[in-house]
Each structure stands twice: as structure tokens, then as C-alpha cells.
Amino acid sequence: MFLSFEGIDGSGKSTQARLLADSLRAEGRDVVLTREPGGSPGAEEIRRLLVEGAGERWSPETEILLFTAARRDHLERVIRPALAAGRTVITDRFADSTRVYQGAARGELRAMVDRLHDLSIAVEPDLTLVIDIDPATALSRGRARGGNEDRFESLGLGFQQKLALGFRALANEYPDRVRLIDGSGAPETVAARVSAALPA
Ligand code: TYD
């Protein structure tokens, strides 16, 4: 099974990905927990190009190419071999992040994202869990932890609000694959909602 977690910065998706990996492993499942951008040595190198340096280092189009190149390497080197070996793959972000983040920056870029995805990725997770949270709540969590504030400040609350709407729209666009999970409350409470959304 191939699962992805998605959500805005500070949504708690990385914690949920880890909790789910832990609970499936406790049941005896062989789980690969991975992330994007990155997840394979080559893709982690591309990640550095994306997350370091000035915000305007790359044009939005070049950024889409880099995210997609990183995903292709991650898919070839990590995801496909693991699935072929019968392992469960849980990834913290996948193609929906590109659809939402790069599509939210400039609406017309969604077409480029989709065409590149069809050409070079062409797979979707079996199930995508979107940790749905109010951006203001995510921001205050980040402040409490001293963690996510940087990204929030660089992207802005308004942009995070746009992203949250984008993830909700994906749940309508792909109703069979994408589930919205209420991200409010304690991590264990959210984890119980995640478990309830998994196929029996
Ligand atoms: P992530 O590693 O989830 O963030 P963090 O460092 O807080 O754990 O992702 C890094 C950033 O990249 C995040 O703001 C989301 C963004 N991103 C995109 O814009 N497009 C993509 O395709 C992906 C995978 C991530």
C-alpha cells in the first residue's frame, strides 16, 4: 500500500505520518517512511537546491521542474522498489503538494504541473490523508513550538489560507483517493481519525 500525508506547513502531517508508521509496524507491517522533497539521496540533493537560498532563486516554472525531478528519483530509487517488495510506503508529501503549492502561487501553472506529472510520475498513492487545519491554528502551534514560524512568515498567513483551500479542493477533485482529516486536537486524537480513515 502507498499512502501520502499532505497539508499546510504546521498542520502536524509529519507527526501523523510517523505515528501511523509506528502503529503499522507494531502490527507487524513492513513500513518505509519517507518524505518529499527528498526521500532518496539524489532527491535530498535537489531538496537542498529548493529550500536553501533566496526565495526568488528559481522561477516558479523551474521550481516545478526541480520538485518533479526530485519526485522521479524518489519514485525510481525508493518508492517503486519498496512497493515491489511488498512493503507499505508512507510519504510525508507527494504530488498533491506540487499541485497545491505551485498551483496556488499562479493558477495557470497547475496545467504544467499536471502535464509533467503525467509524463514523468504517473502514479498516485492508494490513499492520501490531508491533515486539515485552520492556518491561524497552525501558525500559533508553530509559535508555541518555535518551529514553523519561519516558513509561515516567509509565505504569509494569506498564502497558507490559499493552500488550505487548495488541499480541500483536491479532496473534491479526487474523492476516491483523498480524505480530509480534522487536524485539531492532540496528536493521538488526530491519529485515531487517521486510523479510522484507513481501509480495514
Ligand atoms: P517540508 O519538508 O514538508 O517542510 P518542513 O521543512 O517544514 O518539514 O516541505 C518543504 C517545503 O516545500 C514546504 O513549504 C512545502 C514545499 N513543497 C512545495 O512547494 N512543492 C512540493 O511539491 C513539495 C513536495 C513541497
Could you say which structural class the secondary elements and strand pairing correspond to?
alpha/beta
Percent of residues in beta strands: 5-15%
Q: Per CATH, which architecture?
A: 3-Layer(aba) Sandwich
Helix content: 55-70%
The rounded distance between the terminal residues' Cα atoms is: 12 Å
The tally of strands reads: 5
Mean pLDDT: 94
How many domains make up the coordinates?
A: 1
CATH superfamily: P-loop containing nucleotide triphosphate hydrolases
Short description:
The chain is built from nine helices and five strands, in the order βαβααβααβαααβα. By secondary structure, it is an alpha/beta fold.
Describe this structure in words.
- With 200 residues, this protein is of the alpha/beta class.
- It is built from nine helices and five strands.
- It has one domain (2-197): P-loop containing nucleotide triphosphate hydrolases (Rossmann fold, 3-Layer(aba) Sandwich), CATH 3.40.50.
- Helix 3 (60-84) runs antiparallel to helix 4 (95-105) and helix 4 (95-105) crosses helix 8.
- Helices cover 60% and strands 13% of the residues.
- Thymidine-5'-diphosphate binds at residues 9, 14, 36-37, 51, 67, 93, 97-98, 101-102, 151.
